[in-house]
Structure formats: structure tokens, C-alpha cells
Amino acid sequence: MAYLFLAPWFIGMVVITIGPILASLYLSFTEYSLLQPPEWLGLENYRRMLDDERLHTALRVTFTYVFVSVPMQLALALALAFFLDRGVRGLAIYRSIYYLPSLLGGSVAIAILWRQIFGTEGLINQLLGAVGIEGEGWVSHPDHALSTLIVLNVWTFGAPMVIFLAGLRQIPTMYYEAAEVDGAGGFTKFWRITIPLLTPIIFFNLVLQIIGSFQTFTQAFIVSGGTGGPADSTLFYTLYTYQRGFGSFEMGYASALAWVLLVIIAIFTAVNFLAAKRWVHYGD
Amino acid sequence: MSGGHRKAWLSMTGVLAMALLASACGGDDGGDDGDGAAAGSEEQIQLRFSWWGSDERRELTEAAIAAFEEQHPEIDVQGEYIEWSGYWDRLATQVAAGDAPDVITQEERFLREYASRGALLDLSEHEDVIDLSQLDPLVTSSGEVDGGLYGIPTGVNAYVVYANPALFAQAGVELPDDTTWTWDDYIRIAGEITAATGGEVFGTMDYGGNEAGFKILARQNDQELYDADGELAFDAETLAQWWDYSLRLRDSGGAPQATLSAEQQDTGSPEQTLLGTNRAAMAWYWSNTLAALSSASGNELMLLRPPGEHEGDRTGNYYKPAMHYSVSADTEHPEEAAMLVDFLLNDPAAVDAIRSDRGLPANLEQRERILGDLDEHQVAEAEYLAEIQEDIEDSPPAPPVGAGQVVDIIKRLNVEVLFDRLTPDEAAEHFISEVEAATG
After folding, report:
1. Domain count, chain B
2. I want to staple B255 with a disulfide (CB 3.0 to 4.6 A). Which of A119, A212, B249, B408 is the partner?
3. Domain of B187?
4. What is the pTM (predicted TM-score) of this model?
5. Mean pLDDT in chain B?
6. B382 C-beta neighbours (distance < 10 Å), count
7. According to the model, what pLDDT value does residue B18 have?
């Protein structure tokens, strides 16, 4: 009987998750155009990645994005959580307002809005124009387009902020009181008490945000109109995978790309967990 | 014994699942026909017909479908439509999933991809149903792939320079004589317009991200983008020269700065382009967007021949099949699908509904018939297409498999050139190696 109740989940897992995962592993060793049956290629798809210049661009773009936006986002989230935690009137309202972008940030509507705001004749340039600065198109300039997407990601700091806020609430006030008795100032309290006790939360947010940022797709797809442009400056890894699969009918190669991304994320997560032993304190 | 029992049980669940699926699929068409549901009544044949494009096109096409259903009450046609860029993603997944529409609108750069991979029906086997006798011979052969007929052109189109006479007047610049103007004239005039209006109006929009324009320049130099074997058939210098024109336009102010051009390149709807908003006096588009662009700008736009037609060894202009109708190889109703294609191409009711929305009708007799009652835009378009006939020496060969990828490749390289990240020569080299890889 138990199996019967498990069945809906189990069938879903096998048919919708495990099945396609295994199929994509197989397809990654084939040439598969969607229209004809796959042809076995062996390791050719993986070898091809070494010479694929656009893939190298995509890796560069994605790593830049992850390494710049995740620390900035977490720092902002922590800073705001810290100030909100110090007792602000109407905390619930502020918390909701700051959390809102996290709910909206990955959506198509916001990406379209971003495109408008940072366009050649968008809001930002109108504001700059009002003070006499002639701005260029931000999303359409190869040197700036990625920055606008980083700003978009940093803006969605609400989700880690709420988690930080919960973490801050967990820190017993007696530690601070004891420190004050010993004459500790605000910075010392933050650095010696708050941060160490918050490390498990920081670690949790870090792992989640790194994994999430590697998989960024919607924003880049909408802001660049699916091209990863201008001039491949927002060619995220997932976007490139999508282009190969659905744009040029190379599902085999796209599957191989997806598997390499999985390995990259797995390595980052593993390194994170190993490094965590050195800096994360789980209390006693 | 128990094994047999289990088998029966399994097949029972299979049948159940199928029934569920079938009812789920049938569920979304409810509303328009209450009669088909009753058991035992005559079965209605369902056909799905997909196309890309605007809301205006949807209205026209649904009128044509209604006329078809009136003539063939036993057939129910469902339209599936989406804008251009989403169309190809969706079609690829549908075909892969074995769920392709029965009648598929194709474009020449994608037609071969689908045909050569066995996704389309060879329509030459249905010539008893589809009457090809009236179709414009200049474009009919464009649907032939490997000896079969996989797509039939809907109509003809040409790539033209749009000009906005009101903006020329505002700038005090005379409209060029398009039978003699050269590429240098084009660049000079564009610069004059920008200068005369103090940058309020750009002389022209950048056009370097669409290979159709380059195709014309290549042909003017006695070359082709692709030869009959699908190989690249132009000199790198010609392509470099083409992008060099873009840089001259950018630097002289005749075309906008790089960021604005890069944005415009990805602007899908005519209303939002610089031409549609009266901020550019010239732009390159396909001739069948005249109505959409004119109504967006509110001015009567003119169609000019491309520059340089009588500058080089020969002319470069050509008729392009605007779209193709094709039929899925997996269709359960090839006969009825062919009937729908024949109807759309040849039936007066369909031509009356669609008019020149899919290019000037490929059916010459019908084209002649509707010329009298076209609106002003359609007349201007028809006149232009008739005028350039004397210039057109031949049709370019159909593009090879993989040509659909060139859409994105050339846009990307164009931006690299406009931002000076690649020189025209470097971009030409990149183009050649990337397109060879895509079509190889």
C-alpha cells in the first residue's frame, strides 16, 4: 500500500527527472538534430568544446557574473539585514519591500523593464541627460551590458537578506551584553560576534547563490533578445547551451554542455564545502 | 496465468492513459463546434496550420481558414501563430516531439534544414491536389530540395531601401534617382540628411546585420552568398567592403551610433524602429512590410532600388519567395493538408483574404486579378516589384542546410564591427569560418 502512495512521486521522479537526465547523458555522446535519430559520436562533443571559441566566451561571461554579482549581492543583503535587525519601525513593511525584487527579479517582465531603463533612450540616460551627461546605451554596449545584468542580480538581494535576518535573530543578545560589559564597540561586536555566529547562514546563502547564478538564463535571454549580445557580451553558459540546442539543432552538443555545467557547479559546491571547514562555525 | 493477467492489466492502463490524453488534447478546441462530439457522427478531420507574424496577419489568415472550412465542412483547421523568433524554437521542439503541425509555414533559410532531415512531405507526390500551373516560375523552384518539392512559395518579395519623403523634405535633401544611385551616393545622402536636421533625423538605419543586403552587393560584383552547392561564393573583400560602408555611415553621422544601432537590430516590431518613428529617413526592409511601416510612421514611404545596381558588373536585386507552405511528413491527413495548401495558393477566397501579406501572391493569375483592388501600399509594392523585373537577372540559389544560423551570426559580427571590436576584414574572416562550420 505504501508503494501505491509513493507511486505518484516515484513515477514523476523517474519519468520527468531521472529519465531525461540519463537520456541527456546518452545524447551528449551523439549527434542529435531533433529531427533524425541520434548518431553515436563518442567523446567528439566534449573534445569539440576545447576549440569552441564562443563557449570560451560564455565561460568567461558566466564566471565574471558569478564572481562579481554573488559577493556584492550577499554583502548588500547582510548589510541591510543588519540594519533592519537593529529595530526599525515597520520592519515587516521594509522586509516585504526589500524582498519583492527577489520574487520579480527572475521574471520576464523585469527583464523587459531593465532593457527599457538601461536603453540608449532609457530612464538612466534621461536622468544623466538632465545633469548634462550624455550616456550611451547600457544594455546595447558590449562593455556595459553584463554590468547591467550584474546590477539586476544584486538588486534581488531580498531572498538572502530574509535568511540573514532570521540568522541574526538567532544570535542570543547575552553575547552582545557580555561584550558591552567588556567595553566592545559596535564594529568589534559585529566582527567578533555577529559574523562568526552567522557563518553557517553566510555559507548557506553563498552555496545557493553560486549555484543559482551559474544557471542564470531568463534575464540574459530577454535583455539580449536571445542572442547573448551585444557581441556575445551577455552570452551566459545556459543561453549558449540553448542556442546550440534549439537554434542550431545540435541537441547532442547541447546535452554535453549541460553536463559540463553540472560538473562545474558540482566542483564549486564541493570546494565550498571543503573550504567551509576552515571558516564556518557551527557553535558548540 | 498470472503473467497473462498482468499483461491485460497493463494494456488496460495503457488504454486508459491514452483515453485521458486524447480527451485532454481534444479539450482545447471546444466551443466552435458542438456537433463533432456526439458518438457515431461523422468524424471531423483536424488540421493544424502554423505561421509566424503579427496580429494583422492572424486576422487575414483566419479569414482564409474560415473560407476553407466553409468549402470543406468536414475539415477543421486550427491556426497556431507566434512571433518570428519564437516560431523556430517552437517548431523545432514540436517536430522533435512528433507533434508537428500538419501545414507548416517555412522560410527559405530553414526549409532545407527540415526537408533534408525528413521532416517534410514531398509535395510533388500531391501535384494532383496542388495546382502549380499558375505559380510564378521565378520562385517556384525555390522549394525544391534534393529532387523533391518540399515547400511552395506563398508570394514574392524584394529587399528594398525604404525612404521617407517627408523627412527628405524636412532636411531639404532631394530624393535620389534610384535607377542610377551608387553606394557612395547612398552614404553621402544619408550624411546630408543627418547634418541638415542637426541629428534629429538619421539619414539611414544601420543594415549590416541582415545578409539579404550583402547578397545584393555580392551579386552586383558577380558573386553569390551561396552557390548552387551551398558553398560560400564571395570574396572576403566584398563582405569587408560591405561593413566598411556601415562604418563610413556611422562615422559620417549618416547612421546612428553603435549602441542605438545595436538596439535597433533586435527591435522586432516595425512601430518601434527609427524608420517607423520618423527618426530615420531610410532603412532596408522586405517589400511586404510597406503597409506596416507606413502606418507606423504616418507618412507615405517610398520603395527605392538598392544603391549600386548599375555600378558594378551586373545588378544584384532578386525576388525572394516570402515564405513557403510545407506539409509535415508525419501528418495523418496528407491529402487534406495538400488541399489546404492548394486553397491558400490558388483559391480566390484565400487570395482575397491574405492579399499581399505573404508577398505578392505567387499565383500569377490571382495576382493580376487582385491588382485592381489593392490598397495604396499594396499597389506601391506591386508597382515596385514590376519595375525591378527588368533589373533582375536571375534568382540566387536556395540557401544550404544551416543557413538559419547565419541570422544570428551576422547580427553578432555586425555589432562587433560597429563597436570597432573587429575590423571589417576580421569580421569577414569570422563570417566565412563560422558560416562554413554552420553549413558544412
Report:
1. 2
2. B249
3. 159-317+402-439
4. 0.81
5. 85
6. 17
7. 43
- Percentage of chain B beyond pLDDT 90 is 50
Q: What's the CA gap between A40 and B232, in Å, rounded?
A: 29
Q: Report d(CA B303, CA A201) in Å as an integer.
A: 64
CA distance B117 to B96: 11
Residue A18 in grid coordinates: 531521472
Tell me, rounded to whole angstroms, the distance of Cα A261 from its chain centroid: 13
Q: Give the pLDDT score at A104.
A: 81
Superfamily name and number for A52-279: MetI-like (1.10.3720.10)
With the C-alpha atoms ordered B272, B274, B276, B282, is the resulting torsion angle positive or negative?
A: negative
Q: How far is CA A164 from CA A74, A188, A197, in A?
A: 9, 19, 11
Q: Does A142 touch chain B (CB under 8 A)?
A: yes
Is residue B152 helix, strand or coil? strand
Q: Are residues B265 and B195 in the same domain?
A: yes
Which residues in chain B land under pLDDT 50?
1-4, 6-41
Residues B266 and B407 in one domain: yes
ipTM surpasses 0.95: no
Whether residue B176 is found in the same domain as residue B266: yes
A230 touches chain B (CB under 8 A): yes
Of B381, B410, B425, the residue at which a domain comes to its end is B381
Which residue on chain A is closest to B114 by alpha carbon? A35
> Min CA distance, A38 vs chain B (Å)?
11
